[in-house]
């Protein structure tokens, strides 16, 4: 069996981590032949709670889990890690826009970037989940200059999974029958869930474009988009807490595809540094359709962007530029 890898989860005493840790420890992400050491980082006041999580992980009796290291010290948490799930942050409360969180959370990601820079492997793959995820990831990378920018990403997979389910439910097919949905831009209410290139295997076994199968452009341009954009807020309104089980599943999906690769014919959505593809602003962390192979991602090129899509891509670009400016100002304080 392979040597154990080191995986850190921050916010390890929180809600998302509670669902994520079990998936990691049982091999859902790195494979059922890959042993691992889990580094659990949270803040000092949460160490008691974290100890309970450690006990539960031990009591799961999982053969791949070789070591659990709970800590409030980033130097220990990030030491030699191969993969980092940066979940820890202040969660959005009911009525709060993600922007309100920016000032508080961006400082956490500056400090964690510095700690990654000093202590993690240079090959570490970093997935930022804590909101505002795209901009936090950008800041984290900026303060970790010794790690390649391509090793940083932010999560829009939950939005992709939500969009995929909306389409599958509408067509009465299993969720896996729907592919090539793209989330463009920011993980916020300006994101653009795009089905222009999406396909579905219908109940009769035929492969069709989602547009043709749904045959209701008004719904696709209206309720579908707004349902996906506002799904996070709807879950908060219902649960009085932000999405956790589904966010953990999406984080596992994101890292699994990055680590192991995506199917050649399909793609997934990941927020990564824009290189200007599709006339998006260079240097913001923008969600694109990507294909992954051998641990590297590549933006899918050549998709048609019509006028409707162009407008949506530009709106979310503008928000990301604004967030970047605000975040850089906060970091200089
Ligand atoms: P939670 O409040 O249950 O847990 C957050 C944990 O982070 C707490 O245990 C807290 O002590 C810890 N924490 C705070 N500062 C820290 C630091 N400096 N270092 C290490 N740990 C720290 O929150 P939950 O529900 O687990 O959500 C975490 C984040 O994920 C929030 O920012 C939330 O908005 C975001 N989120 C992102 C989604 C996405 O699709 N990108 C979806 C859902 C949530």
UniProtKB/TrEMBL annotation:
Listed GO biological process terms: malate metabolic process; tricarboxylic acid cycle
Entry's EC annotation: 1.1.1.37
Molecular function per GO: L-malate dehydrogenase (NAD+) activity
InterPro entries: L-lactate/malate_DH (IPR001557), Lactate/malate_DH_C (IPR022383), Lactate/malate_DH_N (IPR001236), Lactate_DH/Glyco_Ohase_4_C (IPR015955), Malate_DH_AS (IPR001252), Malate_DH_NAD-dep_euk (IPR011274), Malate_DH_type2 (IPR010945), NAD(P)-bd_dom_sf (IPR036291)
Positions that bind substrate: 92, 98, 131, 162
Active site per UniProt: 187 (proton acceptor)
Top EC category: oxidoreductase
Known catalytic reactions: (S)-malate + NAD(+) = oxaloacetate + NADH + H(+)
Domain Lactate/malate dehydrogenase N-terminal as annotated: residue spans: 6-152
PANTHER family with a match to the protein in the record: MALATE DEHYDROGENASE
UniProt protein name: Malate dehydrogenase
Organism listed in the record: Daphnia sinensis
